[in-house]
Amino acid sequence: MATSNKLHLLTGGIGLGMRQLSKYSKLYANKPTYVQPFTLAAVASPRAMYPDYHKVYKESQNYDEIHLHTLSGSCHFVVNLVEQYPDLKAKISSAVFDSPCHIQGIPAALKHLKGVPEGITRPLISTVFRGAITTSDTFVREALLPGVPTGVIYSDRDKVAPVTMIEQMLESWAEGDAPASVLRMKTNSEHLLTMRDQPEDYEKFVESVMAMAKKPAPKTVDEAEGVAIPLVA
Question: By the 8 A CB rule, do 194 and 202 touch?
Answer without folding.
Answer: yes
